[in-house]
Amino acid sequence: MFEVQDVRLDPENRRAWRGVEEIVLSRKEFDLVHALISRAGRLVTRDELMREVWGTTFWTSSKTIDVHLGWVRRKLGDDSREPRLISTVRGKGLRFETGDATD
């Protein structure tokens, strides 16, 4: 079980919660959140995400990650203009924020 900020993720049963509310994620959405939350506070490159979540070493579409990330942010209630959960580090990748002021 992973718990970061108020998001909990149960990889064994493939379930997710924000606070007390269970969030229904598609298979790829879940895999994306898992790849990020399992490394909370650290940068995960787009290449790593494509390999781990989509099982490919080539880009099927430059927007694949962005589209799925948009769906995940909406479901988790994370504002894409001022994200508090998942940050985009332009030109580098994504990071699931721990909420610590030192991050």
TrEMBL record:
<dbReference type="GO" id="GO:0006355">
    <property type="term" value="P:regulation of DNA-templated transcription"/>
</dbReference>
<protein>
    <submittedName>
        <fullName>DNA-binding response OmpR family regulator</fullName>
    </submittedName>
</protein>
<feature type="DNA-binding region" description="OmpR/PhoB-type">
    <location>
        <begin position="1"/>
        <end position="98"/>
    </location>
</feature>
<dbReference type="InterPro" id="IPR039420">
    <property type="entry name" value="WalR-like"/>
</dbReference>
<keyword id="KW-0597">Phosphoprotein</keyword>
<dbReference type="Pfam" id="PF00486">
    <property type="entry name" value="Trans_reg_C"/>
</dbReference>
<dbReference type="GO" id="GO:0005829">
    <property type="term" value="C:cytosol"/>
</dbReference>
<dbReference type="InterPro" id="IPR001867">
    <property type="entry name" value="OmpR/PhoB-type_DNA-bd"/>
</dbReference>
<keyword id="KW-0902">Two-component regulatory system</keyword>
<dbReference type="GO" id="GO:0000976">
    <property type="term" value="F:transcription cis-regulatory region binding"/>
</dbReference>
<dbReference type="GO" id="GO:0032993">
    <property type="term" value="C:protein-DNA complex"/>
</dbReference>
<keyword id="KW-0238">DNA-binding</keyword>
<dbReference type="GO" id="GO:0000156">
    <property type="term" value="F:phosphorelay response regulator activity"/>
</dbReference>
<feature type="domain" description="OmpR/PhoB-type">
    <location>
        <begin position="1"/>
        <end position="98"/>
    </location>
</feature>
<dbReference type="InterPro" id="IPR036388">
    <property type="entry name" value="WH-like_DNA-bd_sf"/>
</dbReference>
<dbReference type="InterPro" id="IPR016032">
    <property type="entry name" value="Sig_transdc_resp-reg_C-effctor"/>
</dbReference>
